[in-house]
Amino acid sequence: MGEGVVTRVLAGFFDVAAGNEVYRCRARGVFRKRKTTVLVGDRVVYQATGPSEGWIEEVLPRQTELVRPPIANVSQAVLVFSAVNPEFQSYLLDKALVVVSEAQLEKLIVISKMDLVSPSALDALIAPYLKADYQVIPVSTKTGTGVSKVKSALQGHTSVFVGPSGVGKSSLGNALSPALGLKMGEISEKMGRGKHTTRHTELFLIDTDTYVADAAGFSQLQVDVRSEDLRLFFPEFALFSLDCPYRGCLHVEEEECGVKQAVRMNQISALRYENYCQLYDEVRHREETRY
Ligand SMILES: Nc1nc2c(ncn2[C@@H]2O[C@H](COP(=O)(O)OP(=O)(O)OP(=O)(O)O)[C@@H](O)[C@H]2O)c(=O)[nH]1
Ligand SMILES: [Zn+2]
Fold first, then answer.
1. What is the mean pLDDT of residues 196-216?
2. Least packed by Cβ within 10 Å: which of 79, 85, 112, 198?
């Protein structure tokens, strides 16, 4: 008996990685009876029946569970956005940060294609996120800058890469592990052709205890947070909201507001605040039209 991680789900079989070995396993009938599904990312107890075959005996409790893509035990989201080409999309990044925070994942922001912008332009782009205490790594797969930093930040995590099309996810994946890059490229190619393909989610072992899932779809990010809770997902607001005269201040319509004051004083990034207001409106609109 041993413990391993499910890296692939095939029809009736599961690939379980343990150390440097991969066991193609069947699951005990008991899972079917209990309606337990085995997901990619699940930590399992397996019994080897041959050099690369075995049975899954037990699924260990899940820490996290993502629905789209269906992966268990993802601990970190790597949000990849290009500095330029395509243009840096701060609204989409801020939205993605809310979504993955809500899923209780660690967050790593990767700003790709840094070779295409000046250092000062890059600094201006990153500053709001550093101010909000996010971990930000600028990279270029053309020059190789930052790639080893990303690799260290993945250590010990199961990470999922998220980001718009064309920002360089496959290129970065390739720099981290050629098999991962290949898979990421394959997926986007199929999606580009507009075919509806079965997405086989797969985990790639990058290093000891370090897995990366192929990129998650990104076409429609929907924030499932209530409008009045959104402010909690902008961590840099917390300190200044102590100066809001009203408890429960939403920092939007209120005349006197500590957060608005901090924006005027340049202590909170105006761009992040504008994105908050836009996202607040978007969520409010959805709440109002739900009935
Ligand atoms: N200058 C520069 N170009 C890059 C960099 N990384 C990727 N590119 C280019 O950007 C384009 C898109 O890269 P991909 O790696 O395919 O991007 P992707 O995010 O996987 O895109 P999708 O497959 O559409 O999801 C390619 O032409 C790459 O050569 C970089 O660091 N610097
Ligand atoms: Zn306020």
1. 78
2. 198
Q: What is the pLDDT of residue 194?
A: 44
pLDDT at 69: 76
Q: Which pTM does this prediction carry?
A: 0.91
User: Annotated binding residues, as ranges?
Assistant: 112-115, 163-171, 244, 249, 251, 257
- The response to whether residue 201 sits with its C-beta less than 6 Å from ligand 1 reads no
Share of residues in the chain with pLDDT > 70 (%) = 92
Domain boundaries, the chain: 2-59, 65-213, 227-288
SS3 128: helix
| Architecture in CATH of 2-59 | Beta Barrel (2.40)
Which architecture characterizes domain 227-288 according to CATH? Orthogonal Bundle (1.10)
Total Cβ atoms within 10 A of residue 163: 25
Quote the ligand 1 centre to 148 CA distance (angstroms).
Answer: 18
Decide: 283 and 230 in contact? Cβ < 8 Å. yes
Euclidean distance between CA atoms 129 and 43, whole angstroms: 33
Give, for ligand 1, the residue of 87, 171, 184 to mutate: max count of ligand atoms closer than 8 Å to Cβ: 171
Top CATH class, 65-213: alpha beta
- Cβ-count burial 118-155 (b if 16+ within 10 Å, e if not): eeeebeebbebbeebebebbbbbbeeeebbeebeebbe
Q: What is the DSSP string of 215-244?
A: PPP-S-----S-GGGGGGG-GGGHHHHTT-
Give the nearest ligand 1 atom to 185 CA: 23
- What is the number of the ligand closest to the CA of 247? 2
